[in-house]
Design goal:
Chain lengths: 225, 355
Amino acid sequence: MAFTEKEKELIDRLQDAVVNYKVDEAKKAAQDAVDAGVNAYTMTMEGLAGGMAVVSEKFDSHEYFVPETLLCAKALYAALDILKPRIKVKEGEVKGQVVLGVLQGDVHDLGKNLIKAVFEAAGWTVHDLGRDVPLQKFVEEQIRTDSDIVMLSALMTTSMVGMKRVIPMIKEKNPNVKIMIGGAPITEKTVEEFGADSTADNAPNALQEAIRMVDVLKKGEMASA
Amino acid sequence: MATKDEMSGLERIATALQQKEPDRVPVAPLVCGASHRVYGITYGEWSRCTNIDAMVRGHVEAIKLLGHDGVVALVDLSVEADAFGCEVIFPEFDTAHPNYDSPFIKGPDEYGKIKKVNPRKTQRMKGVIDMVAGLSREIGETHAIVGFVYGSLGTLSMMRGPENFFMDLMEHPDEVMEALQIMDDVLAEYAVAQAEAGDHAVCYDNLYASQSILSKELWEKFEGESQKKVCDAIHNAGALVLFHNCGNGIYFDMCEKWGSPIGISHAYVSDDVDSWAEHKAKWGGKIATIGWIPPGPVAMLGTPEEIEEECKAEIEIFAKGGGFILSTGCEFGPNAPLWNSRLIVDAAKKYGVYK
């Protein structure tokens, strides 16, 4: 995709601000983008999501760790708050919707919040239920929003068992919805055991997995149309 | 082939920690909160540390039922934060935790709220000390009793909320450091009190000393000296130092430098190796491994066959030469099938006999 010189400059500034966790720079670059009238969606995807992709690589290579990644997300959100109201979503460009939350009894939401930041930067609509979420709430929110994916998070073994109960509750109401589970005790074996569809060990991988699952859903819809 | 035990659990664990081969591989599947179910009190009541007799009896009866060699006096990771004034929520059937909707430290300008407290007088710290004393009286001659202290970084993160705390490490380091230095003395005193109550060892949880959370440099900057202060106090009180760290890519070199533990309870390998076999080769003769059965997929959800298979595999890699205690990589799930813990013990007896 070809960008104008101005667009490229702004994309570079946004990426740099996210990668180097400079909140003020991120806000300034976002405001400059709005003032310049450039496409806010492009700035979000290329600048913010692009920057977060670099952050993810640094996290994977152990150059960045949790504090750095959180600060990068802080810069991202500072810019996203300015750009988001200006995003005009073209028909067919909505990536997907997810319901996201931490299981009842569990209050560890750091991983969940990182996923939210990455997904929102990538243009997804995230319905964040927060932490210590009663099981029925996941069911109700999926129905209310008709989200493609429900993402369940738990750090503790005491709360992860709730996943095994809530997944059939969700699937009973909507057999087509995809369920992704995550958290420290979750493995591929747990996915199979609990009847989920997938897991991912970090936010960028979760996004890739979500894109794949939505593609599968859309192909299924087209096949049956 | 299983044979009759020739050593007590205490002798077995002590031998293994000294890098020698006991009669068989010791086994201690971190049955902590799960013990409340053996004596029939709710998890909420157990967590409040108001019924010490029941807590002691729960552990003692759990040992009779399950057959493990030692006990860790972990209640949960909010005990220390609670003592410093953090509001804690006690679900009846789940682990107690801080009220993150109303954290004790609401902003970086509130780290000055951290004040010294007396661990021998605050409710739950005193409860743990009293529980250790009770366990020492009941089983201290035959089973290993290990006290527990959540490290300064972890405790402070509970009081601020982990997300904000991690950012404060980078954005408000001076404020964090001042608070940590106040906490150090209290945590050291808490560890000493447990040792005086009859612990054979005290386990210091340095969860953030791993690639899962902090860079090595940042961890060392904030917790290195703090950890050493607590560990020195434990050594001076005559107890052994153990660590617990269930993060991935643990900084074993930092553990060695800033605490000299005789063993580490862990779920993943050190950051400087790529496999368990490598870990055994590099660290096995220096720092005993206590672990590493996955508590979720195996200890909680595994079939009996899967549990036995995992235990057998771990024993095959780690048992030779001693320096290994079969355990779960983190606390045995308080709501996990208790009998799975017995299967772990049985596997140690079946596959862990030293010939």
